[in-house]
Amino acid sequence: MSVSPSNQLAPAPLLARVTPVSNTALLVQWKPSASNGGLPVTKYIVEWSLNVDFDSNGGNIVGFHDIPATTITGKAEVQAVTTANSGTGVFGTFTLNYDGQETRRLDFDISTAEMVHALEELSTIHDVSVSREVVGHGFTWLVTYNQMNYAGDLAGELTASDVGLYPASASVVVEAQRHIIGRLPYHHVITGLAATPYFVRVSSFNDLGQGSALEEA
């Protein structure tokens, strides 16, 4: 006799992150759970409150918004690493550091495949793709983060060191102007808020109802 597991409420989403976008608006982002309780998740419910218990008693307003599970709006983070020299070519090696971990020494003209390998050797990076452009007397590598452990903005997480490049005028930088901010698969912008702290939670919904929530302050 075979026994099939019973369907359950969907577990909470993953990696919920809340970021202020103004004094009266919050950006909420999240990833779906690996499990759906045995039934497809049909929507996500974003709730916000002045009360950690999400209790509307005592004048604490509770707001909510439904996001259909089919509304996927994520995009990959992209960062640009550029070597340059005002007069002549660039030679030697440089290093990159991501979230506290440093790559091995990278050749001034490192290939895209070798750049991917060097970055994915770091335990803080899981899956990237890289393209390369010739720029002036150097190169630009566009690094796309195909999997993000947490929501962008990742600016400042990737840094570069020109120690090992020559001549002395050679440099390597992570370009802010070419940075594309990534976003997790689902998001919602809560607007019309008062300039005061809020509690936010996100839950999954399947045919059995609303599952447990992941909360962020």
Characteristics:
217 residues, mainly beta, Immunoglobulin-like, 2 domains, five-stranded antiparallel beta sheet, 1 helix
Descriptive overview:
The chain is mostly beta strands. It has two domains: 14-72 and 184-216, Immunoglobulins (Immunoglobulin-like), CATH 2.60.40; 77-180. It has one helix and 16 strands. The strands form four sheets. Strands 6, 7, 8, 11 and 12 form a five-stranded antiparallel sheet that branches. A four-stranded antiparallel sheet has the order 4-3-15-16, with no helix packed on it. A four-stranded antiparallel sheet has the order 9-10-5-13, with helices on one face. A hairpin with a 2-residue loop joins strand 6 (91-98) and strand 7 (101-102). It is elongated. It starts with 13 loop residues before the first strand and ends with a strand.
Could you give a short description of this structure?
With 217 residues, this protein is mainly β. It is 4% helix and 47% strand.
Structural class: mainly beta
Rg, rounded, reads 22 Å
Beta-strand residue fraction: over 45%
Describe the largest sheet.
5 strands, antiparallel
In terms of topology, how is this protein built?
Blueprint: E1 14-22, E2 25-31, E3 43-49, E4 62-68, E5 77-84, E6 91-98, E7 101-102, E8 106-107, H1 112-120, E9 128-135, E10 138-145, E11 158-161, E12 165-166, E13 171-180, E14 186-190, E15 199-206, E16 209-216
Antiparallel strand pairs: 1-2, 2-14, 3-4, 3-15, 5-10, 5-13, 6-7, 6-8, 6-11, 6-12, 9-10, 15-16
